Amino acid sequence: MLVRLSNTLPSAERRQGYALLLLALLIPAILAATGLSVDLGRVYVAKTELQNFADSAAINAAFELDGTTAGIAEANAAAANGPGTPATRNRWNFSSQAVSAPTVEFATQPNGAYSSNPGSGAGYRFVRVTLTAPVPIYFLPVLPGIATTQNVTASAVAGQGLENSLGPGTAPFSPDAQIPADPNFGYTVGERYTLKWAPPGQRNKPGGRCPGDLTFNPGGGSSDRGYIDVGQGNGNSGLYDAIVNNSFYSTVPLTVGSIIDTVNGNKHVGPAMDMRFDQDTDTTSTTDDAYNGNGRRLMISPVNNAQDPPVVVGFARFLLEGNSCTDNNKPCCAIYLGNNPVIGSTKPGAGGAGLYRVKLFS
User: Fold this and answer.
1) 43-102 per-position pLDDT tens digit
2) How far is CA 139 from CA 23, 39, 48, 96, 150, in A?
3) In the chain, which end has fewer C-beta atoms inside a 10 angstrom radius, N or C?
4) Residue 233 DSSP class
5) Is the dihedral of CA 62, 66, 68, 73 positive or negative?
């Protein structure tokens, strides 16, 4: 008996109809899978871009905190604008949009409490930058309940953390504290103190002492010149590199309590000091508030206890002056700016006496 197969198999038209129906049923799943890879990928990239901005903005802002309300205002501007120039500032959404309107808050401790408008800048050395931006979603909205945009939030906390040691960046000088137990070492802000002492026979002659040390003698006796070895050795060329080029080789950073390795002899550092001074973009200011240079005139130096051997009791900021070492028989003087230096900054720290470094906390 013959069987007519044409009545038992679906026609080509029917098979095409099944395929179209199946495709229609699969389109949402295909779009959902595409959305998971494309839309979530976009969200991830946007989150990374925004987080990079928040990190950079918080670090930039933390460098501006100097214990004053003006510093708070400058930190706000630094965080809002982000790093770089308007043409190169950190952007997001595949570099098509500039980040705008971040929330900037300040605190005295990294875990808060945070305030967007503290009444005083004193002690405020931490900044939190938070920003939220809508990321367009193109494929996932085919699913019920999925919006066409997804808000992405990024937040970062940066601040001036207390450090107990200073490595590269140490000036090869160590002034003697007049009062080792005093947070300001017995110094007066704005006065000139000795970085490099004149030879003993010249110290009591006119111009043989810096103004702040007229009645003070170095703790190391006649051999004390104020030079210290931060890894450069005891030669003139090494001292030049340490002063001008920030060349340091010490593998052990100086910390409070460290015994200082001094360099004896009357080294010729006047040309190096003048070179560093001339490289600054501000060669006229004599106070912290007025100074607006590139940092070449600034030095962070460990201050010692005026004993033999000398021991580090703290760290201080000094501002170089032009022709600070008039000749090899004269001292090298510098203006004392304060006891709260921030490594890599041209401004003082917002905290009390201590050595600070700007870094991310979260």
Assistant:
1) 888 888 889 889 999 999 999 999 999 999 999 999 987 666 666 666 777 677 778 889
2) 17, 7, 21, 20, 12
3) N
4) -
5) negative
Residue 2 burial (CB count, 10 A): 4
Dihedral of the alpha carbons of 104, 109, 110, 116, in degrees to the nearest 10: -10
How confident is the prediction for the chain on average, in pLDDT?
86
Pairing of strands 149-163, 355-360: antiparallel
The answer to whether 240 and 268 are in contact (CB under 8 A) is: no
Q: Is the pLDDT of residue 123 over 90?
A: yes
pTM above 0.70, yes or no: yes
Cβ atoms < 10 Å from Cβ of 117 = 10
Q: In which band, very low, low, confident or very high, does the pLDDT at 313 lie, cut at 50, 70 and 90?
A: very high
Of 206, 209, 174, 212, give the one whose Cα is nearest residue 193: 212
CA distances from 187 to 227, 259, 266 (A): 19, 21, 25
Q: Is the peptide bond before 113 cis (omega within 30 degrees of 0)?
A: yes
Judge contact between 21 and 14, C-beta under 8 A: no
Residue where the block lists tokens 């920003």:
131
Q: Which two tokens stand for residue 311?
A: 């021991």
DSSP E strands, the chain = 91-92, 97-98, 103-107, 126-136, 149-163, 165-166, 192-196, 254-255, 298-304, 312-320, 332-338, 355-360
Read off the tokens for 338.
Answer: 């304060």
Over residues 322-328, the mean pLDDT reads 86
- Whether residue 118 is preceded by a cis peptide bond, meaning omega within 30 degrees of 0, is no
Instruction: Please tell me the predicted confidence (pLDDT) of residue 26.
Output: 63
